[in-house]
Amino acid sequence: MNIKQLEVLRTLLSTGSTIATAKAMGLSQSGISRLLAQLEADLSLTLFARDKGRLIPTPEAVLLARDAENVLLAVDRMSGHAEDLRNGAAGPEIVRIGLPSSMWENFAPAMLIDYVRDFPGVRIETFFETTTAINKLVGERVIDLGFLRMEGEIGPGIDVERVATGKSVCVVREDHPLAALDEITVKDLRNIPLVLIGRQRPNRMALDQVFKKAGVKPMVKIETHTNSSACAYVAHGLGVTIISSFYANLYRHLPVVARPFVPQATQEFGLARASGAPLSIAAQALSDALKRKIQLSQKIV
């Protein structure tokens, strides 16, 4: 298995045909077919089904393509470092950071405003992913830093510094009747349209158990997969949501209010990095910028 084979897999999934892949990679169609056949032989897996000249990716191909992408990202990173070394370290340093998807809209730009001024020669690459994906990217050293929710098992070879905590809150539109309450219980949400984070996440499964224990059937109107979209739906009167106060504090600019949700749970958030790998000056500065922005975002105003 080699890098060219992984590039073929990635490009085939993107283009859907050997002709388009050959054009994109500057190779012949027969060359693409040969590289694909070699990859399938090396892996002892069928990655594409052949149907009347069409290539249909198997589920295994889709899963392995994610690993291939991480490998190719790591190779790109190595090539960039090699170029810097050839140029006497004259080229720009690259710092890569992983953040939850809910932090792309306001948090990340605000975090980077002062940083890009202080480090004009540094190129920043941001990855917006789930906690599971960020954990993996840090462990594989694809990214330098990763902000994630501390839940379940932390991967081997990863150090995590706790940098924030949150409490369960119910976010409602500011003119909603529930906004008049000092705290909101499960029973207060009976027959109330809810906007909840997707069912496959640990915190959602725990929340489902809270409703079940209270004997209340949640009226889920919308399921979504980011805290930012949940708060936006609430702001438009589509329902109420239950999230961590950490994320609720990022969306105080919306016409919503947060009230403690009872029974209350605590969430912890950390900054992950590979064990035994000292951060560069630029990466450490980005870590400090993230911590400062977290402190500002969580202040009660």
From TrEMBL:
InterPro entries linked to this entry:
LysR_HTH_N, LysR_subst-bd, NocR_PBP2, WH-like_DNA-bd_sf, WH_DNA-bd_sf
Per the record, the similarity remark reads: Belongs to the LysR transcriptional regulatory family.
Organism equals Agrobacterium pusense
The record's annotation in PANTHER family points to: TRANSCRIPTIONAL ACTIVATOR PROTEIN LYSR
Q: Which UniProt keywords apply?
A: Activator, DNA-binding, Transcription, Transcription regulation
- Output the lineage of the source organism: Bacteria, Pseudomonadati, Pseudomonadota, Alphaproteobacteria, Hyphomicrobiales
**Domain HTH lysR-type: start-end pairs:** 1-58
Q: Which Gene3D superfamilies match?
A: 3.40.190.290, Winged helix-like DNA-binding domain superfamily/Winged helix DNA-binding domain
Q: Which CDD domains does this one have?
A: PBP2_LysR_opines_like
State the protein's name: Transcriptional regulator
A single Gene Ontology MF term assigned here is: DNA-binding transcription factor activity
Example GO biological process term? positive regulation of gene expression
Highest taxon in the source lineage: Bacteria
